[in-house]
Amino acid sequence: QDLADGYLSKTHFQVRKRKIPPDLQERNDNIEQMLLTHVEESMDDSEVAGICATEEVVRYEYHVLYSSSYQVPVLYFRACFLDGRPLTLDEIWESVHACYQARLLEGPWDTITQQEHPLLGQPFFVLHPCRTHEFMSSILADSQKQNRHTNYVILWLSTVGPVVGLNLPLSYAKLAPEQNMNADSF
Amino acid sequence: MTDDKDVLRDVWFGRIPTCFTLYQDEITEREAEPYYLLLPRISYLTLVTDKVKKHFQKVMRQEEVSEIWFEYEGTPLKWHYPIGLLFDLHASNTALPWSITVHFKNFPEKDLLHCHSKDVIEAHFMACIKEADALKHKSQVINEMQKKDHKQLWMGLQNDKFEQFWAINRKLMEYSPEESGFRYIPFRIYQATTERPFIQKLFRPIASGGQLHTLGDLLKDVCPSAVAPEDGEQKTQVMIHGIEPMLETPVQWLSEHMSYPDNFLHISIIPRPTD
C-alpha cells in the first residue's frame, strides 16, 4: 500500500490575545472576531501587519501527514510572528483556550514534541500519534453502532485539531457522506 | 570467519576523530584553542559534547553563551541524527579529522531542533526505538518491556555500555519461529542533494515466495537511482557505518546487525569519489 508523499496543509493568521482580566474578555472577543475577518480576507503579510498593528499577529501552519509506521494520521504544526520569529511551545500553549489545556493534560495524546518534518526537513511541533488508535476506535465504534458514515481524517482532525488551535468549519462535516473509512482500511 | 556478534561490537565502538573549532564571530575574552575528540558513531552530538561546551565557555563571557549548535562547511548539523550518519552523509570522503564549527549564537530555528537538556535526547531516542518496534513487531516487544528496561537502553547508550544495552536490545532483534524475520524493516535513506530529509517506506524483509530481500532489492524499490548505473558507471556509494555493504546482503541480517542503537538502519547515498 503505497500512499502518495503529500500532505494536507492549512495556514491561518490569528490575533494573539494578551492576558486580560475576565470582565474585559467578552469585549475583546468581539474585537478579535472583527480583526480575524479582516485578516482572513487578505493573504498579504504586509497588509495583515498594517491592520493589526496593536496586536501581535501569528501565522499558524498545520500539516496532516500519514505515518506509515503507526498507520495513523499525524498533525504537524508551527507558528511564527510575521517577522519570521518562531513561537516556542510555551508561547503556542498560551494561545490554546483554557478548556483545551485541561483536556490536553489529561488526554491520551501523550505529549507535543518538536520534531523534524519528514518531507520539509524543518522543525515542527507534533502531536504524538502512538495512542491515536485507542481514542479513535471508541469514537468509530459508537458511530458505526448508530449507522453514521464517518470520514476518518475529518473525525480525527476535529478531535485533535482544536487542542492546538486548529478549528474545522462545520462545512467539513458535510463533505463526502458516501465515504465510510475506518481505522482498519488505513 | 568473523562471528556475527563481532559486527555488533565493531558497530558500537566505531569512532570518528573530530576537531572542534569555535566560530570566528563568537566573542571571546582570549583566543579559543580547537578541541579534539573521538566521537562515537552511534551516539548524538549533544550527548557527547559536554567537554567541548565547557572548553569553549571558559574563554567566553556568560552573556555571550546560549544554546550550543554545530555546523560543518556551512551546514547546521542535526543533533538528532546519529553522529556516524552525519559524518557518512557530509564528510566521509574528506580528510580526517572531521572539522566541526561550534556556535553559541544565532541558533538556526528553521533548521535545527532545540536540545535544552539530556531529557530531549532520551525522548527522541526512545521515540525512534518505539517506532522501529512498531514496524518490526507491531510494538508488541517494546510494550511488553518494563519501564526499567527502556531506561536500561538509554543508560547503555549514554554511558557507552555495550553489554548493558544489548541485554535488552537483543529482545528487540528476535522474531517468532514461524516468521523468517521482522514484519517490516526500520530504515531511512538519506541523500544530501535532495530537499527531502530522508526516505522511509514499508518494506518486508521476506518476499512472498519466502526468499530474503537484499539491500539491492530495498534500493531498487525505494531509491532506484542509487542502483541503476548511468553510463554503465555507478555514480553513488551506498554507505552504512562508514562501509559499503554488498548489495546481496539480506536486509534482515543488516537490520539485526547494523542498525544503530535506535534500531533503525540509517543508510547514506553519497557521490562516489572520482579518484
Automatic annotation (TrEMBL), chain A:
Among its keywords, does the record have Transferase?
Answer: yes
Which terms does the UniProt entry file under GO BP? autophagosome assembly; autophagy of mitochondrion; protein modification by small protein conjugation
A GO MF label: Atg12 conjugating enzyme activity
Q: Which family does it belong to?
A: Belongs to the ATG10 family.
- Specify the superkingdom: Eukaryota
UniProt keywords (A-Z) are: Autophagy, Transferase, Ubl conjugation pathway
InterPro entries reported in the protein's UniProt record:
Atg3/Atg10 (IPR007135)
Is Thylakoid among this UniProt entry's keywords? Answer: no
The terms describing its cellular component in GO are: cytosol
- Which protein, by its recorded name, is this? Ubiquitin-like-conjugating enzyme ATG10
Q: Which Pfam families match?
A: Autophagy_act_C
From TrEMBL, chain B:
Report the subcellular localization: Cytoplasm; Preautophagosomal structure membrane
Q: What is its main location?
A: cytoplasm
GO MF annotations in UniProt: Atg8-family ligase activity
Q: Which residues form the Autophagy protein ATG5 alpha-helical bundle region domain?
A: 119-174
Mind telling me which InterPro entries this protein's record contains? Atg5, ATG5_HBR, Atg5_HR, ATG5_UblA, Atg5_UblA_dom_sf, ATG5_UblB
Coiled-coil region(s): none
Q: Name one GO biological process term.
A: autophagosome assembly
Q: Which cellular component, as a GO term, is one annotated location?
A: Atg12-Atg5-Atg16 complex
Concerning Pfam families, the annotation shows:
ATG5_HBR, ATG5_UblA, ATG5_UblB
Which residues are in the Autophagy protein ATG5 UblB domain?
Answer: 184-269
Keyword vocabulary terms for this entry:
Acetylation, Apoptosis, Autophagy, Cytoplasm, Immunity, Isopeptide bond, Membrane, Ubl conjugation
Q: Where is the Autophagy protein ATG5 UblA domain?
A: 11-104
Superkingdom of origin organism: Eukaryota
Q: Does the keyword Membrane apply?
A: yes
Looking up Gene3D superfamilies in the UniProt record yields: 3.10.20.620, Autophagy protein Apg5, helix rich domain (1.10.246.190), Phosphatidylinositol 3-kinase Catalytic Subunit, Chain A, domain 1 (3.10.20.90)
Q: How does it sit in the membrane?
A: Peripheral membrane protein
For this chain, the family text in UniProt reads: Belongs to the ATG5 family.
Q: Tell me the function of this protein.
A: May play an important role in the apoptotic process, possibly within the modified cytoskeleton. Its expression is a relatively late event in the apoptotic process, occurring downstream of caspase activity. Plays a crucial role in IFN-gamma-induced autophagic cell death by interacting with FADD. Involved in autophagic vesicle formation.
The UniProt entry, under PANTHER family, shows: AUTOPHAGY PROTEIN 5 (PTHR13040:SF2)
Q: How does it assemble?
A: Forms a conjugate with ATG12. Part of the minor complex composed of 4 sets of ATG12-ATG5 and ATG16L1 (400 kDa); this complex interacts with ATG3 leading to disruption of ATG7 interaction and promotion of ATG8-like proteins lipidation. Forms an 800-kDa complex composed of ATG12-ATG5 and ATG16L2. The ATG12-ATG5 conjugate interacts with RAB33A; this interaction is bridged by ATG16L1 and promotes ATG12-ATG5-ATG16L1 complex recruitment to phagophores. Interacts with TECPR1; the interaction is direct and does not take place when ATG16L1 is associated with the ATG5-ATG12 conjugate.
Instruction: Please give the name of this protein.
Output: Autophagy protein 5
Q: Which organism is it from?
A: Centropus bengalensis
